[in-house]
Design brief:
By secondary structure, the protein is an alpha+beta fold. Among the domains are: about 70 residues; about 120 residues, no CATH class. About 30% of the residues lie in helices and about 20% in strands. The chain contains nine helices and 15 strands. The strands form three sheets. Strands 7-15-12-8-11-10-9 form a seven-stranded mixed sheet. Strand 13 and strand 14 form a beta hairpin. Helix 1 runs antiparallel to helix 2, helix 4 crosses helix 7 and helix 5 packs across helix 7. This is Phage capsid-like C-terminal domain-containing protein.
């Protein structure tokens, strides 16, 4: 078995094992007897695979020592990881991508044995398919892939707040049962669970829940980054530049899809989901304005249990309106006081006040994002509990390189492929136990034109 296949098998087993513990943790229980037995089997297989990988890497070290040249930035890359250079793995993403470029160059006869090809690897460059080494069809080293994705989801204001589930090996999607609850009325909570006050020796009444099936299949997000020949000569700078470019672009595409996605070949954004509530404007409200009543109406439609997670997402065009918001307190005579304890109460607190990173509205953060619509149109201000958005993904991220696309400009293009999908968990607004207005974790304001 090739070292690529060994490493892939090891990664699949690690993900499978993590899935076992994640399932048990989600249900707040220990491992079942069957799960424990499978975990023991995985541990035994990993021990055997590690031994095989060690032997294969040892042979690679022997081959590499025959005549491979050292990189000018090898010392810097080693310092970046604390000087721990074992020669078996790339020390940085930049070092690996530079190896991909060298393997892709016309006439290249030596391919760094540390590269993991997507498809079969020939002895040298022979064709134009991404599946062979001549076109740089190589997997990003797993730790680099995980780091890129981790930074993407940590840095994104929206991506960091959604609920994400990794998809295990031999699977292209997710199907799970969710509670079919669209009303909090008696007999509807938890899809049909009901309890009764029962007297001594009284008859117990039966009830049962109702479930819905949530299903998604992975879609593919691809990104392109161009690097000059000068940048390619410095692996440390290349690693930093490529990482930042990848992170910024994937954050943008993922977060825009979470908000505005159509669900056709891409995630379903919550603005296009069936659960989103559109709150009407105030009678007589001027075009392209926001007022305190809009905020109160939106806040009242957010379920109480979601308010602790909810954030306001706004287009920056709304900020002048937000800065002017306040709610005057009326005195007994019905006129506005301007001093003392009855002074106007500010509903919007600008960023920096009391050390807050974000502005605050009704006690919840106000986050300006590019994905919201302009002032006066639906989606210019959104009140959302993003933990009620479910996403799935599958790694590792794949990369490929080509020197041909921008050859006359002395540039190389790197392509990254990431498999991801998502949709709102709620499929319809909720009818409250008492009251007539529905509630949802996704609330927007109607057009003001």
């Amino acid at each position: 078995m090739s070292i690529k296949a060994l490493r892939q098998k090891r990664a699949d087993l690690v993900r499978e094992g993590q899935g076992i513990f994640d399932a048990a943790s989600a249900e707040n229980r220990g491992l079942t007897e069957t799960e424990a037995a499978r975990d023991d089997a995985i541990a035994a297989e990993l021990t055997d695979l590690d031994a095989q990988i060690t032997r294969a890497e040892r042979q690679m070290d022997r081959q590499r020592s025959i005549g491979a040249g050292s990189d000018a930035n090898e010392g810097a890359d080693a310092n970046d990881r604390g000087g721990r250079s074992d020669g078996r793995r790339f020390s940085s993403l930049g070092e690996q991508l530079r190896a991909v470029v060298l393997a892709s160059a016309p006439g290249a006869s030596v391919i760094d044995p540390r590269l993991q090809a997507i498809g079969s690897v020939s002895a040298g460059p022979t064709g134009m398919s991404e599946g062979v080494s001549s076109e740089g069809g190589f997997l990003v080293q797993t730790d680099f892939s995980n780091e890129l994705l981790q930074h993407t989801f940590e840095a994104g204001e929206i991506a960091s707040r959604i609920r994400k589930i990794p998809i295990g090996p031999n699977s292209n999607g997710l199907k799970i049962n969710g509670v079919d609850e669209t009303s909090r009325a008696n007999g509807s909570r938890w899809g049909g669970i009901r309890s009764f006050w029962t007297g001594e020796a009284g008859l117990k009444n039966a009830s049962m829940p109702k479930f819905k099936r949530i299903g998604m299949e992975l879609d593919k997000l691809t990104g392109l980054c161009y690097a000059t020949d000068e940048l390619l000569q410095d692996t440390t700078a290349l690693s930093s530049w490529i990482g930042q470019a990848f992170q910024d672009e994937f954050i943008f595409k993922i977060e825009d899809a979470v908000v505005n996605g159509t669900g056709a070949g891409m995630p379903l954004g919550f603005l296009n989901g069936g659960a989103t509530i559109t709150v009407p404007k105030v009678a007589g409200q001027a075009a392209a304005t926001l007022n305190a009543q809009n905020i109160f109406d939106m806040y009242s439609r957010m379920p109480a249990r979601s308010r602790k997670n909810a954030v306001w997402l706004v287009n920056q065009d709304t900020e002048p309106q937000l800065l002017g918001l306040y709610v005057p307190i009326k005195n007994v005579a019905g006129t506005e006081n301007v001093g003392g304890f009855a002074a106007p109460v500010v509903t919007y607190t600008p960023p920096g006040f009391n050390g807050n990173e974000y502005g605050m509205l009704m006690g919840r953060p106000v986050i300006p994002v590019e994905y919201c619509a302009t002032l006066g149109t639906p989606g210019d201000i959104v009140f959302a509990d993003l933990s009620q958005y479910l996403a799935i993904d599958k790694g590792p991220t794949q990369s490929a390189a080509s020197i041909h696309v921008r050859f006359i400009y002395d540039e190389t293009v790197f392509r990254f492929v990431y498999r991801f999908n998502g949709q709102p968990i709620w499929q319809a607004p909720m009818t409250p136990y008492r009251g007539v207005k529905t509630q949802s974790p996704f609330v927007v304001l109607a057009a003001r034109t």
